[in-house]
Amino acid sequence: MKVWKDKEGKKLTVKEFTKRFKDGIVNMTPEQRLKNEARSTFIMLIGYLIGLVSLVIYRKSFVVQWFTYALIIIFLGASWGQFVKWFTSRQQLRLLKNMGENALDLDKILGELSNKKEENNYNSISRKNERR
């Protein structure tokens, strides 16, 4: 029987482990989800390519040749689909990271704008007081 331990070293029951695992999956950030998706898609792509190469190498050992060619076409289509999925998940991850970096800059810009607005309000009030 597998024994799981938490960070403090306490033993966890299966029920407690599954509850914590479920909570961890639910509370994943979008960046963590995209990283997982990109990693798993890349691993699947490697598997499809290995299957395709091994099918091409050992196609003579199959009795029915048309079946081999059908499998090669299926592997090619699946490999292409996995490549596109891997590429798009990497692009989404890059965009998400760039959005996070730009959001920090946006906060800085908005802070500067609010400071300038406060200065302008102060200057306009002081000008009105000088006119009186």
Percentage beta strand: under 5%
Which structural class do you get from the secondary structure elements? mainly alpha
The succession of helices and strands, N to C, reads EEHHH
**How much is the average pLDDT?**
83
Structural domains: how many: 1
Helix content: over 70%
Question: What value does the Rg take, in angstroms?
Answer: 29 Å
What's the story with the biggest beta sheet? 2 strands, antiparallel
Distance between the termini: 86 Å
| SS elements, strand count | 2
Q: What are the low-pLDDT stretches, counting only 5+ consecutive residues below 50?
A: none
Count of DSSP-assigned helices = 3
Strand line-up in the sheet with most strands: 1-2
Overall spatial form: elongated
